[in-house]
Amino acid sequence: MTTLEEVQKRAESDAKTYGYYLNPDPEFLKGLIEGLKKNWDRYGYPSCPCRLASGNIEIDRDIICPCDYRDPDVAEYGQCYCSLYVSKEVYEGKAPLRSIPERRPKEKQIRSFEAAKAPTKKEKAEGEIKLEAEKPITIEKRLWYCKQCGYVVYREDPPYICPICKAKREMFSEIKIVISDKR
């Protein structure tokens, strides 16, 4: 298990690395850190405390903190969706914290919701919940590379911002692998 201190240190380190700050309100920050810890303990990864996680890392990959949407949100609004990460202006009180629109696509939100309401293995084994038909959730992952720095990632969509060079999503291209059996 992860401690609250470890979760906060990880968030502080990440904020410092990318030039961000953590929310300046100590009580609000404490609630966010507790939410991250709770999700880490529950799922085995720190899913965003302000979004519904499914418990399936492949479905939740885009909302593992820091989520894919943090960098564009902080760039545009001065804070991420849950306000854990903020800009210097917000941290210093020169810009207000405010509600910002959800950037996560509706399809991904719906997929998380559907997966989250599915019964757990324990519930299935105990027969507590019976589903009429289980529909498997499939995620088509692809290889993406950043044309600016060469960063390669295997996932459903390219990140909004390259974690290495900060290039925008448009700088990512899909790597297509063609296997030929010509002899």
* Alpha-carbon distance between the two ends: 54 Å
CATH topology of the largest domain: Ferredoxin Thioredoxin Reductase
Output the structural class: alpha+beta
Q: How many alpha or pi helices?
A: 7
Proportion of strand residues: 5-15%
- The secondary-structure element order is HEHHHEHHHEEE
Question: What descriptive keywords fit this protein?
Answer:
5 strands; alpha+beta; Ferredoxin Thioredoxin Reductase; three-stranded antiparallel beta sheet; Rubrerythrin, domain 2; 183 residues; single chain; 2 domains
Give a description of the structure:
- By secondary structure, this protein is an alpha+beta fold.
- It has 2 domains: 4-118, Ferredoxin Thioredoxin Reductase (Alpha-Beta Complex), CATH 3.90.460; 142-175, Rubrerythrin, domain 2 (Single Sheet).
- The chain has 7 helices and 5 strands.
- It has helices at 4-17, 26-43, 57-60, 70-77, 88-91, 106-116, 121-126; strands spanning 21-22, 85-86, 142-146, 152-155, 172-175.
- It has a 3-stranded antiparallel beta sheet with strand order 4-3-5, with no helix packed on it. Strands 1-2 form a two-stranded antiparallel sheet.
- Helix 1 (4-17) crosses helix 2 (26-43).
- The N and C termini lie far apart (54 Å).
- The model is unreliable at 127-133 (pLDDT under 50).
SSE blueprint:
Elements: H1 4-17, E1 21-22, H2 26-43, H3 57-60, H4 70-77, E2 85-86, H5 88-91, H6 106-116, H7 121-126, E3 142-146, E4 152-155, E5 172-175
Antiparallel strand pairs: 1-2, 3-4, 3-5
Helix pairs in contact: 1-2
